[in-house]
Amino acid sequence: MQKGNINVQAENIFPIIKKFLYSEQEIFLRELISNAVDATQKLKVLSSAGEYKGELNSLKVEVLLDEKKKTITVRDSGIGMTAEEVDKYINQIAFSGAEEFVNKFKNIDDASQIIGHFGLGFYSSFMVADKVQIISRSYKEDDEKNAVQWECDGSPQYTLKKAKRKERGTDIILHISKDAEEYLNEFKILDLLKKYCKFLPVDIEFGTEKESVKIEGEKDDKGNDKYETIEKPRIINNTKPAWKIKPSELKEDDYQKFYRELYPYSYEEPLFQIHLNVDYPFNLTGILYFPKLKDKIEIQKNKIQLYCNQVYVTDNVEGIVPDFLTLLHGVLDSPDIPLNVSRSFLQNDSNVKKISSHISKKVSDKLDEIYKENREEFEKKWDNIKVFIQYGMISDDKFYERAEKYCLFKNTEGKYFTFEEYKNQVEKTQTDKNKKVVFLYANNTIEQHVYVKNAKERGYDVLIFDNVIDPHFINMLEMKLKDTRFVRVDADIIDKLIEKEDSLPSKLTDEQKEKIKPVIEKFALKDKYHVIFESMSENEQPMIITQPEFMRRMKDMSALGGGGMGFMGGMPEMFNLVVNTNHPLIVEVVEIQEEEKKEKLVEQMIDLALLSQNMLKGEKLSEFIKRSLGFIGK
């Protein structure tokens, strides 16, 4: 028997491992199983190369739980290890750098600072075990007496001795510590296996499960098939997930089935998917699904699962995937992505940037392909994907350049236009006196119905911008699109939104305006409504409420938390009360001598303006109804 010290001079290496990795404690099982899978895969390679002549038999990895003995065993039938290999890979390589690790991090309280500095692997087992045993027999050894047993109790001392083992392969036996006894629960282990091992390329077996099997040739009294319940090994994983299969071998139903496998509790089918299959200049496979976003931006961003050679790593893919693409669902698998101490965070690496850029391009190419091949289908999907595309265009200049040709505007009549198509559509009618093409838009066609109607009566078109990131999107478009201005349809009277060289004359003199203004201001709160007089068509309302585009847009952006305009959130909202100096009722009211009658009519017109904007509520609304009934009675 060989005794010795692991190559660690500092005595406190294991307590430090436990302290710093406690939050990631559960990954010990992933690490041990992925090692077992590696050992199994290596045997397959050796066999196919003719270097191993023996029988492969059933290649699998077993996880065995013994609650009484308080042990967890990870067993494989892979290549195994000789005594020399155990000494090399466990005593030397696995712990190399440990002393430096201790010296560097022993005084650090924040575990995040050790990210990327030290690899885990086999000895993550000491996070949950007081003692770890390895019993291994190499594929090179013909005699079962040539197996080897290694043992360590969490101190630098270990023992290495001969053992007996009938089959080739390795058992890692963890004697679970008192503070980690939660891992002696069958359901806890099952959850971890389903989380980390769901798509490993070798069968992972844990316990048994019951299955109802038809008894061939036997019927019950009613002539129905007879069944019996049998117990069979519980296989955790799907060894051939869809992303490892060639796209040419998959049908649409296969992609939908795999989506349900990834998200069994999702009730909505995805819109479409992109199958990634890259082997140069880096290795990357995966399937990304487009969920139905509609106008939601509070989407869960942890729906893309990252794998490394089919071993689950994390669902935090920020850094690998551009931020706007984290709205997608699906799987990415790459052995070329560098990972930290727990395989859960990324280091700075040029490969990551290349992968991120490639994914962005592939997504854009797919959208462009759908747009070109079937624009009608693309338009049907637009309301569900527009938030994603707009978010991408705002946050990624390269994506903007690609998406500009298929990003769509939608108008109030439900028609869709590319940027270029729309500018050509409205250029003649909606160019103002400053040679700017004015794009009118509504964010609520019901509340802004009067304003949309007024615009259409002028022959103008109105777009719909009704999702939460539109204030940012519009700001960006005004910087990108030449000689273009965006204005919400209720930001001013229509003739001011698109000013022409000619304007309507006013039926009120300046003297008459000054005469009626104090009466209007008496009912229009000066701190909220600014009274202005405009020459409008006599067919439009006598008074309307508008909110200046700049102030409203800044407030909208502030509410979304952007543009550095946090102070805007605390500012009171300001509106214009626009008086139509050509409306017959306004002209009539100016000449009324009876002050009380004049005030009642003015108040009624102001309330009507407020009502049309859904701004008349509570007591004021009740008073308005009562006053209106009085008018009807007269």
Outline the structure in words.
With 634 residues, the chain is of the alpha+beta class. Among the domains are: 2-206, Heat Shock Protein 90 (2-Layer Sandwich), CATH 3.30.565.10; 242-380, 2-Layer Sandwich (Ribosomal Protein S5, domain 2), CATH 3.30.230; 508-544 and 573-634, Up-down Bundle (Four Helix Bundle (Hemerythrin (Met), subunit A)). The protein is built from 18 helices and 22 strands. Strands 1-6-5-4-7-3-2-8-9 form a 9-stranded mixed sheet, with helices on one face. A 5-stranded mixed sheet has the order 10-11-14-12-13, sandwiched between helices. The protein has a 3-stranded parallel sheet with strand order 18-17-19. α17 packs across α18. The longest helix is centred in the middle third of the chain and has 24 residues, at 350-373. It is elongated and about 115 Å long.
